[in-house]
Amino acid sequence: APEAITLKVWAPQEDQVDSSSWLLQVEAAFAAAHPEYTITWDNGVCAEGDAKTLITADPAAGADVYMYANDHLGGLIQAGAVAKLGGPFLEQVKADNNETFVGTVTYADGDVYGFPVAPNTWFMFYNKAIVGDADITSLESILEKGVVTFDVANSWNMPAFFFAAGGSLFGDLGVDAAAGANFGGQAGYDATEALLTLQENPNFKWDGDGFGNNSLKDGTVAAYFSGDWDYAGLYEKLGEDLGAVAAPTVMMNGAPAQLKAYAGSKAVGVNPNAKNMKAAMQFAAFLASADSQLLRFQLRNITPAVTALGENADVAASIVAVAESATMAYASVAQPTIAEMNPVWGPVGTFGSNIKDGMITMDNYKTAVDDLQAQLSGGGL
């Protein structure tokens, strides 16, 4: 006789509106594929960004399977609220995803703690009526055609310049605390020089408070940097003139250097407190399978993580999916998930604000970079 089990699943509201929604369709498919279980589904609403707060409050009472934003991985692990993967589950993650995606769910101990289902990153939107496709890989080429806006005071965006210059945070995967935060020295000088040089260009404007988004919509800006959440509103205004692409190169020391966004993911996690651990793991793997991710893309336009889905005709026709996939492949670095990252955000944001406000100049920038590095490697940490 089939085993009677209950699976408690938390997912975003948009994925479980009615029986035609993604979560319910996948649950029905999983039940059909696993006649060895008679499953009672206990679904709850929890956005990926809220998972850490909700599940760590009482892990034993939390969902068996839930979706989380990978930058919360450290907190979930410390609370004993997310299970590490092994066997066929670990093999699935490594077979389905590129190294960047696998890195987003890998912790400092080298273990993997989730199944990636979508990228969480930023890229460049542009107006095809102003900028041709031949120009979009070089920031300087775009600036010759029109205005570019960038949010230098946003500590999620601004490090792109430091990474382009060779700066690093906590090693290649962002999980090596001993490697430290390295935004100083020549890399820091090069990044800051590039930002200050851009500041002198009348076609380069600092973004903030929706300026870039609104200006792209009204045609006064050629390009700005944001993420998939802005696509629908932009497309409504620009239609087929809207383009999306990975961040371009910027000139540093007389050579083009690739701007790199933070690469994160939205992932499916399993609670180590789950009563039916085997079924919970099986369902999490099923929820993150290529078929399930493709269905979610078709229903909600959410870019899949599975590498092979980039070949799917529908996915390949989505400018956002193509831009996000390219970003994850070559124009990004893993967003650190360890606790040592927490004190980095503030000083980096302040440094960007000081550039924006004209407090950092070509006369004093080396001192400012040295001070930033001192904060990141000593005082602040």
Give an overview of the whole structure.
The chain is an alpha/beta fold. Helices cover 39% and strands 19% of the residues. It contains 16 helices and 15 strands. The chain has helices spanning 22-33, 51-57, 73-78, 87-96, 99-104, 139-145, 159-164, 185-199, 211-217, 231-238, 277-287, 290-300, 313-316, 319-330, 345-356, 365-379; strands spanning 3-11, 37-45, 65-69, 115-120, 123-127, 148-150, 168-169, 181-182, 204-206, 223-226, 242-245, 249-252, 255-258, 261-270, 332-334. Strands 1, 2, 3, 4, 14 and 15 form a six-stranded mixed beta sheet that branches. It has a five-stranded mixed beta sheet with strand order 9-6-10-5-11, sandwiched between helices.
Beta-strand fraction estimate? 15-25%
Which term fits the overall shape? globular
Radius of gyration: 22 Å
Structural class: alpha/beta
- Low-pLDDT runs of 5+ residues are none
What is the β-strand count? 15
Number of helices: 16
Helix content: 25-40%
Rounded mean pLDDT score: 95
Query: What about the largest sheet?
Result: 6 strands, mixed
Cα distance, first to last residue? 57 Å
Give me some keywords for this one.
single chain; 381 residues; alpha/beta; 6-stranded mixed sheet; 5-stranded mixed sheet; 16 helices; globular
